[in-house]
Amino acid sequence: MDLIDAFVDMTVSAMSPEIFRKWAGISLVAGAAERRLWSRTPRGAVFPNMFVMLVGAPGAGKSIIDDVKELWRETPEPGVKKPAFHVNPDNMTKASLLDVLARSSKSYLPRSGPPFNYNSLLVAAEEFMVFLPVYEGEFISTITRLWTNPTEFAESRRTGNIKELKIERPTLNILGGGQPSYLASVFPENAWNAGLTRRMIMVYSGDHRLYDVFALEPMDPAKRAGMISRLSAIAGAYGEIPYSAEAVEIYRRWGAGGSLPVPTHSKLADYAHPNNRGLLVLKLALISAISGQRKEIAKYDIERALGWLIEAEKLMPDIFRAMIGKSDRAVLEEFRLFMADFITRGGRPVPEPIMWRFLLDRMPHEKVHQLLQAAERSRMIELVAEANGERLWGINPKYIMQGE
Question: What global pTM score does this model have?
Fold first, then answer.
């Protein structure tokens, strides 16, 4: 079992949905690799750093982010007690990000050649709104630039003791948590076609299960110690991880076939660019190989990376539906008016797929079935006909009279 799968298994009692635990594990490994491990294409080096946002309602299980933060903090450098990673302080704000990153210098001595100097900061923020309470273009541009792992980052300042800030080989990993309402209130409409949201993988869960806290078992101390030991081993690794011929072939085949399936939501237009998604696949494949301590990126790693990305992308539109923020009552009334208008204009009942499409534009998919059940049980709608596998629905006239 590789490190990511082991993390998902170890945190089964964390009251967090599996997809959150999976992406927390991916971020855990990405952060541990920092800038010491990379792959290479003809376009240049590919580093494993990631920006991941876990999105869900309050109590959806975003606290798994704190588990990642604790593991990062407790991991020692190989053979010594010194912490292996620089992790964000709990009170860090956007204003102090660059200062903290500038102090997070690292030096690795390869078996041959000069020391490899770089600056690495791992950010784990269960409440991303503390880190980014308002949308500021200049700050967004800064962290977007850091995502590209430049050779140097320089900033001129008008105030303070440091007038010229220079950071050598900066790398930044972010694992954040947010609610749909936070994204709706902070990110303006034009932000969804900007640099940060194009590079950030948003992972949604609408899981509202009540976990039986009395049936959950505590985290196994032996498994936790083993995970810290494996993270420490990653902290001591350095060098390029090449692609196998099979991995390259799978990647090329996916690209030549149109990089399917492509996200179609309007807010994901720039994110869905094949070059952007292609780079994310390469990063994830590299992380998969690091997690399994493989010497090359195999066919398995590319296929696994595609599976991870496509799974997350299928749920991304639900984030924007949840951002609308209408109550079920408001959506139900809007749905009733839509049904009545469709029947009046078309002179026929409403096919079920049309009802689903209308509601999917207004709420997460897992709530559509619940709302349709509520509409049927309250006798607002009724099944009129069913033929050739198609169900046709109408409005209950008595319900219309009562409602109006």
Answer: 0.83
